[in-house]
Design a protein that fits this description.
This protein is an alpha+beta fold. About 25% of the residues lie in helices and about 15% in strands. The protein is built from 14 helices and 19 strands. A hairpin with a 5-residue loop joins strand 14 and strand 15.
């Protein structure tokens, strides 16, 4: 007789959220995971820096912490000077195309080891046609927020995105540049609303005891930016939870009574249900290997664009000195039907150490002795990273090769450039009301997949057909396999993806048979 246990594949945000819900129902959970962790020498560097107060860190200390990220290969994101959290492209893709920016993770905690920690719920209008509603996700946003720290305060964004209220919460103190910009944005509220925009402080998945040391983009030395590995450590102590790292899943087979998961070691694990949350690339690899007749999966991307802006006011203090953080500082939501029926979401970043480096690398060689000028200019630079709904973005078709890896081919969206230009123009007009000049000529789109806001390749549907799943993430024709990561989203709205993926995974774990 098969032991009554649920198998969760992957320890990223979706995996730990589903596991939390299943354990709360008194079920037994086995989590299969790649389980890579930070190397001991990198962990020792982190601990040594965290043992000292940031006020006592020297410039050399800071530079040494930053250099590994600056030296990373194109498309590779490091934290703590390590590549542990991101697989090289060739681990998942055969002959990876240069334009494809998405990567997989086989780390404990998955890609949450690398994320920017921005948190927002989805708006009902951006979920039109889905088999679930924002109200269905509402209680699961609340449940996830019991273990996901969310810093932020109530503001105008709640009226636009009511599924998760911020009442009673505390925010991170913004950097000096961002604080000045927020004051200007509030003063221009009427003019901004006339442009179809709502503005508020960023919501970040960060412990509010943040030391504001400014090293967020290289790995918080104090571990205060949430990662799914934090919740995984709590799960390990829970009765009924069995964590098995070092496991790479290659496929599964469902029978009327159970599901058997096959591992690359040649071993197998059998349970009553499987919850597949390995991340959209690894999940695609597993699905294509396991579902007869499924020849391809099409990823939907949320196109993102970086829009640099120059402030027209003087800084009262240098933004690169003192206490600050470099996570997103301000959110801007554009609700303008003439641009898109969906929200355009923008995240504003004040000074960080990448700005001067990018300016010098891109323009410094053309202007001798210009490094001091670009360094000073970087201190007046604010960058908006804005996202489009997947309806306006390219798609990526994935097929399986004989060696079990994936091939990726682009399915262009002919409207993407037009809509992204219109969105850039509107973001620029909004920010112009607050004293910023948008450098729209220098707007830089990210490559397909590079936003990491990607999914919807096996979308949930009310009446699923081949290549779709039901409202519990079950691929058409299956009863015991649930896809819980972004793969099962019906689309990818522009607002941040991780919080909603977690809420949906928790919902599936709560309501599955």
């Amino acid at each position: 007789m098969t032991e009554l246990r649920d198998i969760v594949v992957g320890s990223g945000p979706a995996g730990v959220s589903a596991a939390k819900a299943l354990l709360a129902r008194g079920r037994t959970v086995v989590m299969l995971d790649g389980g890579k962790v930070l190397e001991p020498e990198a962990e020792a560097r982190r601990a040594a820096l965290a043992a000292r107060d940031p006020a006592g860190w020297s410039d050399a200390d800071r530079i040494a912490w930053m250099v590994p990220q600056f030296e990373a290969a194109e498309g590779q994101f490091r934290r703590y000077g390590s590549d542990f959290a991101m697989e090289p492209a060739t681990a998942t893709l055969a002959d990876p195309p240069s334009w494809f920016g998405l990567r997989a993770s086989r780390a404990a905690g998955g890609l949450s080891n690398l994320w920017g920690a921005a948190v927002l719920p989805y708006r009902q209008e951006d979920m039109a046609g889905w088999p679930i509603t924002a109200d269905d996700l509402g209680p699961h946003y609340q449940a996830v927020a019991e273990f996901l720290p969310i810093a932020g305060v109530p503001d105008d964004l709640e009226a636009l995105l009511p599924a998760f209220p911020m009442s009673g919460r505390t925010g991170l103190a913004p950097a000096s540049q961002a604080e000045a910009l927020l004051t200007r944005l509030r003063a221009a509220r009427g003019a901004i609303e006339a442009l179809g925009a709502s503005v508020g402080g960023a919501r970040q998945a960060v412990d509010t005891s943040c030391r504001r040391c400014g090293l967020c983009l290289h790995g918080c030395p104090f571990g205060l930016i949430w990662k799914a590995g934090d919740t995984l450590e709590e799960l390990k102590a829970a009765p009924g939870f069995d964590y098995r790292p070092g496991q790479t899943v290659v496929g599964f087979a469902e029978s009327p009574e159970s599901v058997t998961v096959h591992l690359d070691s040649g071993e197998s694990v059998t349970g009553t249900r499987v919850f597949l949350g390995a991340g959209v690339l690894e999940t695609a690899r597993i699905l294509l290997a396991s579902l007869p007749g499924l020849d391809a999966l099409v990823l939907r991307d949320s196109q993102h664009v970086f829009l640099p802006m120059i402030q027209r006011w003087r800084n009262r203090t240098r933004p690169d000195k003192g206490a600050f953080h470099t996570l997103p500082q301000i959110f801007v939501e554009i609700d303008a039907p003439e641009i898109s029926p969906h929200l355009v979401h923008a995240q504003l970043y004040s000074w960080n150490e990448h700005y001067a480096r990018d300016l010098i690398q891109n323009y410094g060689s053309k202007l001798p002795f210009s490094h001091p000028f670009f360094t000073a200019l970087a201190r007046r630079l604010i960058v908006a990273q804005f996202f489009l709904h997947s309806d306006h973005s390219h798609r990526i078709s994935l097929t399986r090769t004989q060696d079990g890896r994936l091939t990726a081919s682009l399915e262009p969206n002919v409207n993407m450039e037009r809509i992204s230009r219109a969105a850039a123009g509107r973001v620029g007009k909004v920010m112009g009301k607050a004293g910023l000049t948008a450098l729209t000529f220098a707007a830089r789109p990210g490559g397909p997949g590079s936003s990491f806001h990607v999914g919807a390749s096996l979308p949930m549907a009310r009446e699923p057909a081949s290549g779709e799943s039901d409202a519990l993430g079950r691929p058409n024709g299956l009863l015991r396999v649930h896809v819980i990561d972004a793969t099962s989203l019906p689309a990818v709205p522009a607002t941040t993806i991780t919080f909603s993926v977690m809420a949906n995974a928790h919902r599936i774990g709560t309501h599955c048979p």
